[in-house]
Amino acid sequence: MRRRDIFRVGLAGAAGLFGLRPTKAAAIEVKPVEEERQKVAYHLSDLDKVNFVLGNIKNHFEGTDGKVDIALVVHGPALAAFKSKGISAAISGRFAGLVQDGLSPHACANTMHGMDIGLADLLDGFHAADRGGVVKLAELQRQGYAYLRP
User: Fold this and answer.
1) Residue 53: pLDDT band by 50, 70, 90 thresholds?
2) Does a structural domain hold residue 29?
3) DSSP state letters, 100-148
4) What does residue 39 show for φ and ψ, rounded to 5 degrees?
5) pTM here?
6) Is 4 contained in some domain?
7) Where residue 144 sits, what CATH number does that domain have?
8) How does DSSP assign 75-90, residue by residue?
9) Exposed / middle / buried, residue 95 (Cβ in 10 Å: 0-12, 13-18, 19+)
10) CB of 54 within 8 A of CB of 82?
11) Domain membership flag for residue 25
12) Domains in the chain: how many in total?
């Protein structure tokens, strides 16, 4: 007998001893994994992008059937667009609807101080990012939020 034949006979004998036999693959039921909620932080500092970003956030809520946690961090010139006095009804209404959908808006405390704006001067729903907008963005990213700057 050749070595190869000896090996085959030995392997067949071992399989017989241990009751090994070829089997068909069993059908495995795969249950869908529940989707994890998305967590997204939108960064807004450009005044000319306010409507665009609010539109993106609206689309994000709709595209995920609301299964998303969205934070909006506003600093710089864009913060002026959210002052409650003199704001356009379109921005005010759109913003209020997003807050109702679950948007968590944060205003940079450094920008608020620099522009002499208090939290009470902003639309309802804003939280102060006491240590600054960029610090808040970094904290959100550390908490697993995806960073978006449209």
Assistant:
1) very high
2) no
3) HHT-EEEEEHHHHHHTT--GGGBPTT-EEETT-HHHHHHHHHHTTPEEE
4) -130, 120
5) 0.76
6) no
7) 3.40.1260.10
8) -GGGGGGGBSTT--HH
9) buried
10) no
11) no
12) 1
Count of alpha carbons within 13 angstroms of residue 13, beta-carbon side: 6
Domain containing residue 107: 38-148
22 vs 92, higher pLDDT: 92
Cα 91 from Cα 122, distance rounded (Å): 12
| DSSP code for 36 | P
Tokens standing for 118? 């208090």
Does residue 143 lie within any of the structural domains? yes
Q: Who contacts 5 (Cβ-Cβ below 8 Å, separation ≥6)?
A: none
* Amino acid found at 13: G
pLDDT at 54: 97
